[in-house]
Hints:
The chain is of the alpha+beta class. Helix content is 27%, strand content 25%. It folds into two domains: 10-20 and 133-299, Nucleoside Triphosphate Pyrophosphohydrolase, CATH 3.90.79; 26-129. A hairpin with an 8-residue loop joins strand 5 (109-111) and strand 6 (120-122). It holds the Pfam family NUDIX. It comes from Glarea lozoyensis (strain ATCC 20868 / MF5171).
Amino acid sequence: MEKAAKPxxxxxxIELVHNIPFDFDFSALYALYLPNDPRPHGYMLxxxxxxxxxxxxxDVQHESRSIKLSDSSNGLDTAAACNKAFQQVIDDAIAANVxxxxxxxxxxxxxxxxxxxxxxxxxxxxxxxxxxxxxxHLTAYVNMPEGIKVWVxxxxxxxxxxxxxxxxxxxxxxxxxxxPFQCIVAESDEEASLPRDFVEKNxxxxxxxxxxxxSRVTQLIRPDVIYVFDLELPSSxxxxxxxxxxxxxxxxxxxxxxxxxxxxxFKPNCNLVMIDFFVRRGIITPDNEEDYVEIAARLRRKLPVxxxxxx
Length: 311
């Protein structure tokens, strides 16, 4: 596993996650194509392509480094045919325990962004196919006399990924049949016991973060999309763990969050969410941050895969 250098600037915290350069040569990877769509929807490592138990519906061309999924329904139900083909390959890979990162478990569905049909595949397998992941993060804050404070959870010790690390107030992967807002409303209840009607009325969509990341553990390369939401809480409303994924919540000042980020206590992509929040709230400004323009650019990158339907 690659060892990251100790961050000294906010830009370093971003680059720990957004670690694929803008001029990266994707031709070294295998492009994944869906039926009747000339746009690549994912990029796969050669070693992943070699290990994947492909079915006949996938045409793997090593010379052109492409993988093309065919429509076995001949246009009668393209989405169902594609979903079935993906699931067969995923089932076979999980059954054979081909990829340690999947750890033999099935997971909820992620939809493929920008696909012309409703095509989805299991969350744990999505990074192997290099498709864009959709996440939703909510920052719940309180306006105090001394300034803004944010409710910060600590992840439970038994979680498979990033145990014991700090996180954004509420966060989750957006399931294939959910909108980002629906994800936030559900996760606010499940993770923090926040009243559903209060969240539905007061949570505000505030933008999106996009980046390309290479995992230091698995070496997989994938695009990531984070929909960000803000929620101001009254001082009397205190988040409480509910579903076992959170060990507890702490109301932290900007200075405390900043120090924790540089100590490496936050789940890495949550640093981006907190930095984005500080920029939008006027806490990070061009006057107090010399990397301001570069920080803003790094929080929103044009991705190499579609995020909208073909026109």
